[in-house]
């Protein structure tokens, strides 16, 4: 009989932005049972919501510290813990659960500082535990198709990649004092960067993921378009990758008229690809000198990596929950078979993104000079 993993969730309480996406994603393939949780900063709300979700009362914890102690001592403990709390808590919680021998999926950003991220990478290696960061958009089948096509040489050498995550959600000056907006531009709560660390980093991760290259250096220009903001709400980055590809990233929170705004364009010597998160089931491929073809999610001609990431037949819409679900199914494969090599983003990729954000901040402060990672 199939092994079902016991899953624990920290954060992601009732009304949180990302909690429900994790809960749906984790149960898409029947791989996990939500067994334990410390779901909310408020212990009472944590208990009540755990009850609503059907978590047994003796494993509905008032805080993550108690969950750590009791799950460590449990005769049948959780297999994987997801950390979906605010950014500044990630390091402490991830460290504690790795040290106690649990597999960990952490929300992005992995940590607030490069030193903390390096520490977690080293710890995860020592502990020999599965470790992942939720760059969940890398789970889209057609993003994996793009990666497979580049890997198979369909584009030849990739010359240029252009990534965007530019939305218009924080463009209204009259809304700038809204508590859900304000903290993002407060360095005490958000860290060194706002829109790049929050949104742009997904596009940056995706660019490296499809290229199969690491970031070599960054030049950045940050701007705050709304008066009084202490952190950037618009940023333009130039990128150089390990195997010579040139990259450009635009990220913004003031792009009025753009809805989600996560897009990728890739230009190689033999052709080009483009993909948009708002139309995730299509990948546009233009071989050099030929007309553009539209590759469809679920079709037989796709790579094995894209096919395994699809659940329903061609022509039906599959979206963000399925993409997140693919990270959970990748993690399942890895946990039940440690020699498997599924494609989920690891702590190493989390570290690279933390380094990238800090390099971009430093570059911008110095007028855009190139900064090595
Ligand atoms: N990967 C993505 O696409 C994506 C999207 C949105 C948010 N995120 C990340 O997810 C994390 C959470 O973001 P959100 O927007 O859901 O935040 P949120 O403020 O909406 O929800 C945070 C939840 O964590 C709980 N919480 C806070 N501190 C806690 C603690 N110490 N112990 C237990 N629970 C605690 C809160 O009560 C709340 O339920 C952030 O790191 C954010 O960057 C990632």
Write the layout of secondary structure elements.
Layout lengths: L4 E7 L7 H9 L4 E7 L4 H11 L10 H10 L6 E5 L5 H10 L3 E4 L7 H14 L3 E3 L7 H11 L6 E9 L12 H4 L4 H4 L4 H17 L3 E9 L10 E8 L4 E7 L9 E7 L2 E6 L5 E6 L5 E4 L7 H5 L11 H17 L10 H19 L5 E2 L1
Parallel strand pairs: 1-2, 1-3, 3-4, 4-5, 6-9
Antiparallel strand pairs: 6-10, 7-8, 7-14, 8-9, 10-11, 11-12, 12-13
The protein binds nicotinamide-adenine-dinucleotide.
What do you see in this structure?
The protein is globular, with a radius of gyration of 20 Å. Strand 1, helix 1 (19-27) and strand 2 form a beta-alpha-beta unit. It has helices at 19-27, 43-53, 64-73, 90-99, 114-127, 141-151, 179-182, 187-190, 195-211, 304-308, 320-336, 347-365; strands spanning 5-11, 32-38, 80-84, 103-106, 131-133, 158-166, 215-223, 234-241, 246-252, 262-268, 271-276, 282-287, 293-296, 371-372. It has 2 domains: 5-129, 3-Layer(aba) Sandwich (Rossmann fold); 140-312 and 347-365, Dihydrodipicolinate Reductase, domain 2 (2-Layer Sandwich). With 373 residues, it is of the alpha/beta class. Bound molecules: nicotinamide-adenine-dinucleotide. Residues 10-13, 16-19, 38, 40-41, 64, 84-87, 89, 107-108, 134, 136 line the site of nicotinamide-adenine-dinucleotide.
């Amino acid at each position: 009989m199939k092994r079902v993993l016991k899953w624990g969730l920290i954060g992601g309480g009732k009304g949180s932005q990302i909690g429900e996406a994790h809960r749906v994603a984790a149960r898409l393939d029947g791989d996990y049972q939500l067994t334990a949780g410390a779901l909310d900063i408020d212990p009472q709300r944590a208990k009540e919501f755990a009850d609503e979700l059907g978590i047994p009362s003796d494993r509905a914890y008032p805080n993550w510290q108690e969950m750590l102690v009791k799950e460590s001592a449990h005769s049948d403990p959780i297999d994987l813990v997801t950390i979906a709390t605010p950014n500044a808590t990630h390091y402490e919680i991830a460290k504690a659960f790795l040290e106690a021998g649990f597999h960990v999926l952490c929300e992005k950003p992995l940590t607030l500082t490069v030193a903390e991220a390096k520490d977690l990478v080293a710890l995860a290696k020592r502990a020999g535990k599965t470790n992942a960061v939720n760059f969940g958009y890398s789970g889209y089948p057609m993003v994996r198709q793009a990666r497979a096509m580049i890997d198979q040489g369909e584009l030849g050498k990739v010359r240029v990649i252009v990534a965007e995550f530019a939305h218009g959600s924080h463009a209204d000056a009259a809304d700038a004092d809204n508590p859900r907006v304000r903290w993002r531009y407060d360095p005490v709560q958000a860290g060194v960067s706002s829109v790049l660390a929050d949104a742009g980093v997904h596009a940056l991760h995706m660019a490296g993921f499809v290229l199969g290259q690491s970031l070599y250096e960054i030049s950045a220009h940050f701007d705050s378009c709304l008066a009084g903001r202490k952190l950037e709400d618009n940023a333009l980055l130039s990128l150089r990758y390990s195997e010579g590809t040139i990259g450009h990233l635009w990220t913004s929170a003031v792009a009025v008229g753009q809805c989600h705004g996560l897009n990728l364009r890739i230009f190689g010597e033999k052709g080009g690809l483009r993909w948009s998160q708002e139309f995730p089931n299509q990948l546009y491929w233009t071989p050099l000198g030929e007309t553009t073809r539209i590759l469809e999610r679920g079709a037989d001609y796709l790579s094995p990596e894209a096919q395994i990431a699809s659940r329903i037949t061609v022509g039906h819409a599959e979206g963000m929950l399925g993409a997140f679900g693919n990270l959970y199914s990748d993690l399942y494969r890895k946990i039940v078979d440690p020699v498997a090599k599924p494609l989920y983003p690891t702590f190493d990729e989390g570290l690279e993104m933390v380094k990238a954000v800090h390099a971009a901040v430093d570059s911008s402060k110095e007028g855009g000079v190139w900064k090595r990672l």
